[in-house]
Write a structure and sequence with these properties.
Rossmann fold, 9 helices, binds NADP nicotinamide-adenine-dinucleotide phosphate
Length: 261
């Protein structure tokens, strides 16, 4: 991977929340392969996080993993402070931690609302606040939305709204961060082959069709490319927005969805 992608992030330090699995793990791997020192945040899966760190270090990278629940801004602050203490600076925040939710209107509870927004929305805002405090000119922040933010899907209101808010945050924060030479953007992935998709992917189908059509067949109908993304394909978008080639892009959300319609 290193030879194929070059060393765009040599001398840079990146924090990747939700870096233990799925899209975040692929982002951490890509940034490390291109020379970044990477700090991986995770919620509970220490084994996956430690294994990823071991493999990145074995490849010659600099990496460490720290448990930090992004629903608690104090833990996010500690994650970022420790990243800076260990590696001396912070150049990139890739905010990938997120949780899914499907429920019909009458079944949504205030606790569901608070839990989903605490991770997907509030968690990302305070990650930006803590990260930006350590960043100088050239800082790069990439948050995670979803194609769901701009699609109507049965029983998906909470998750979709929590991600739509992220796109609005990115747009508005770009103004104040831009004056400091920091860019902030989001990736809106479509269906990507991770644990989350395996667990919740069927929810995207109409309730009457659910479980009648395999996910692959459904995607073949609803996506131009007709398949799930691999996490590495989505990670390439984060690396682009975190790199020098994206220096004049800010406040935007990049759909990375294989032409989902
Ligand atoms: N997969 C898709 O099809 C898809 C599509 C659109 C958008 N997305 C978004 O892309 C992001 C990554 O999704 P994924 O599919 O890679 O998910 P995943 O496979 O479920 O992995 C989730 C990651 O987030 C971490 N995480 C979850 N809650 C956390 C919390 N409260 N604090 C800190 N870390 C937490 C997990 O840590 P542990 O390992 O410790 O549990 C894990 O590293 C999410 O924001 C998701 O909403 C995914």
């Amino acid at each position: 991977m290193t030879a194929a992608h070059g060393r765009r992030f040599e001398g840079k330090v990146a924090v990747v929340t939700g870096g233990s699995r799925g899209i975040g793990a692929a982002v951490a791997t890509r940034l490390a392969a291109e020379g970044a020192a990477v700090v991986i945040g995770y919620r509970g899966n220490q084994q996956a996080a430690d294994e990823l760190v071991r493999s990145l270090v074995a490849e010659g990278g600099r990496a460490m993993a720290l448990r930090a629940d992004v629903a608690d801004p104090e833990q996010t602050g500690t994650l970022i402070d420790r990243a800076v203490a260990e590696f001396g600076q912070l150049d990139v925040l890739a905010s990938c931690a997120g949780i899914e939710h499907f429920d019909a209107l009458q079944d949504i509870t205030p606790a569901d609302f608070d839990r989903v927004f605490a991770v997907n929305t509030r968690g990302q805002l305070f990650a930006v606040q803590h990260a930006a405090a350590h960043m100088g000119v050239g800082g790069r922040i990439v948050l995670t939305s979803s194609v769901s933010a701009s699609r109507a899907v049965f029983h998906h209101t909470l998750y979709a709204a929590s991600k739509a808010a992220v796109e609005s945050m990115v747009l508005n924060l770009s103004a104040e961060l831009g004056r400091r030479g920091i860019t902030i953007n989001a990736i809106a992935p479509g269906g990507t082959a991770t644990d989350m998709a395996a667990e919740h992917g069927a929810g995207y189908q109409h309730p009457q069709l659910r479980d009648t059509m395999p996910m692959e067949q459904w995607l073949a109908v609803h996506g131009a490319l007709g398949r799930l993304a691999q996490p590495e394909e989505v990670a390439a978008g984060y690396a682009f927005l975190a790199g020098d080639d994206a220096a004049y892009i800010t406040g935007r959300t990049l759909p990375l969805d294989g032409g989902f319609f």
